[in-house]
TrEMBL record:
Keywords: Hydrolase, Protease. PANTHER family: ATP-DEPENDENT CLP PROTEASE ADAPTER PROTEIN CLPS, ATP-DEPENDENT CLP PROTEASE ADAPTER PROTEIN CLPS1, CHLOROPLASTIC. One of its GO terms (molecular function) is peptidase activity. One of its GO terms (biological process) is protein catabolic process. Residues 1-11 have a biased composition (Basic and acidic residues). This is ATP-dependent Clp protease adapter protein ClpS. Residues 29-108 form the Adaptor protein ClpS core domain. Involved in the modulation of the specificity of the ClpAP-mediated ATP-dependent protein degradation. It comes from Ruegeria conchae. The lineage of its organism: Bacteria, Pseudomonadati, Pseudomonadota, Alphaproteobacteria, Rhodobacterales. The gene is clpS.
Amino acid sequence: MREHQWIMSDKDDQDDDTSVMVQTRPKTKRPPLYKVLLLNDDYTPMEFVVHVLERFFGMTHAQAFEIMLTVHKKGVAVVGVFSHEIAETKVGQVMDFARRHQHPLQCTMEREE
Ligand code: TYC
């Protein structure tokens, strides 16, 4: 139904002005999604990153290890895609957990195209 369009005919227009009322699209726009990104650094232990991915992103040990290695080699990886509120919560949880353990691990979010 996203492509549906209509133009209200004059006889259905209740007010007495002469403007043309045009509804171009039904209002069904989905909210934007946000990628949560994990960044590499030289100091955070690999096992800590694996633990973060298991704990906050529900990954298995094998999945977490694979993503951790991708970040280690490429510098950054998407670890999940969420609504704005959930993405903010995940970033906060990771940053807080890393800070409490005195690791410089960085986690950010980015709006999806
Ligand atoms: N590069 C880190 C090391 O060699 C490991 C690491 C991986 C750090 C992923 C951060 O997001 C990260 N200990």
